[in-house]
Amino acid sequence: MRSQLSQRAPRGFTLVELLVALLVMALLSLMSWRGLDGMARAVAQNRARADDVQALQSGLAQWGADLDAMADGVSNVLDWNGQVLRITRRSADPADPALQVVAWTVRGDTGQRQWLRWQSPPVHTRGDWQNAWQQAAQWAQNADGAARRSEVPILPLRDWQLFFYRGDAWSNALSSGDATAANPDAVRLVLQLAPGYPLSGSLTRDWVRSTLGTNKS
């Protein structure tokens, strides 16, 4: 009788079976971790791409707004010297008749070239405007701490180019003597986006004076 009970008693796991079970669990855990890690990386990449797209869209919207607001009847409304584009624009406050000087440049003194925008405080006199116009040029060449507080980084860039539309043709803003010409009919912005970021390649944006109606090609 005792021999029959002992034969029916449940048998425990052997050491080999236990090791096999632990190995299987470890493999399953490793596969799950890799899957979660891959999902986390994909989410991070998508978030970085979305942030870059939003920054680029905001920068291009501001670029267009600055050109749309160019002041009429003012000398040196638009100036491009190959390094910085300076624009004299109307104040963003419709109740304020003041002008502002805004500037766009690409600077890489921190190890990464950035597309940057700078703006002056509102100016009401010609002397204040001339001072702001000179400050914009100095900011692009060698910005100090005070000037940097008025700049906004937009997006990493490798390079950029500008073209003006005059006489029913596009021309490089520097090669055709248009560097100091005011109020072109259209402005073409070509951005070479920085490699190694979620956004890369070349991007072209055309601004056309509203009185002209359609885009130029």
Report on this model:
Strands 1, 2, 3, 4, 5, 6, 7 and 8 form an eight-stranded antiparallel beta sheet that branches. This protein is α+β, with helices and mostly antiparallel strands and 217 residues long. It is elongated and about 100 Å long. It has helices at residues 2-8, 15-68, 126-141, 145-148; strands spanning 78-80, 84-90, 99-107, 114-119, 151-166, 169-172, 186-193, 201-208. It starts with a helix and ends in a 9-residue tail after the last strand. It is built from four helices and eight strands, in the order H-H-E-E-E-E-H-H-E-E-E-E. The longest helix is centred in the N-terminal third of the chain and has 54 residues, at 15-68. The protein has one domain (47-212).
Short description:
By secondary structure, the chain is of the alpha+beta class.
Strand content: 25-35%
CA gyration radius, whole angstroms: 31 Å
Q: What is the number of helical segments per DSSP (H or I, 4+ residues)?
A: 4
Report the sheet with the most strands, covering strand number, pairing sense and barrel closure: 8 strands, antiparallel
Name the helix and strand elements from N-terminus to C-terminus, one letter apiece.
Answer: HHEEEEHHEEEE
N-C termini distance: 101 Å
What overall form do the CA principal axes indicate?
A: elongated
Let me know the number of strands.
8
Number of domains: 1
- By secondary-structure content and strand pairing, the structural class works out as alpha+beta
- Helical proportion? 25-40%
Mean pLDDT: 80
Poorly predicted runs of 5 or more residues:
none
